[in-house]
Write a structure and sequence with these properties.
alpha+beta; SMI1/KNR4-like; four-stranded antiparallel beta sheet; two-stranded antiparallel sheet
Length: 138
């Protein structure tokens, strides 16, 4: 996964926020209240946050290509929690789709999307790594 991401992102630094410190990653984990998946930790460590395919992937900071409202996964998740989005209270909002739906990482490392129009939750992938692959194919 990381070789493909490096190849995709290295040519365009505007897509990447920049590496995160271990203390920033630990703060994200403390906020989440569950251990972060190893692939998500490594993503944040390497890139901070990035635009992966057409999707923003939140972590620490925001890339120049991302909205300044997307300062961190903590800020984005807090915003969705304060708006009362289902499942956001027990997940991290690691991305959003073009309709503004929350894409969330849960304590098992699975990725789900809550469709606010339909009022349903959709399973996307069983791991952050496969979610990144999903993003790259869109």
């Amino acid at each position: 996964m990381f070789a493909e991401l490096d190849a995709d992102l290295n040519g365009d630094p505007v897509l990447v926020a920049g590496p995160a410190l271990e203390s920033q990653i630990d703060a994200i984990q403390a906020f989440a209240g569950f251990p972060l998946s190893p692939s998500y930790r490594e993503f944040v460590k390497r890139f901070g946050a990035a635009l992966v395919g057409p999707y923003p992937v939140y972590g620490s900071g925001a890339s120049d290509a991302m909205s300044k409202d997307d300062a961190s996964v903590i800020d984005v998740t807090k915003r969705f929690r304060s708006d009362g989005w289902p499942y956001s209270d027990r997940s991290l909002v690691v991305s959003t789709d073009h309709a503004g739906n929350a894409i969330m990482l849960d304590e098992k490392g699975s990725i789900h999307r809550y469709d606010h129009d339909a009022g349903t939750i959709e399973f996307i992938s069983s791991s952050f790594e496969s979610f990144v692959q999903w993003c790259l194919t869109k």
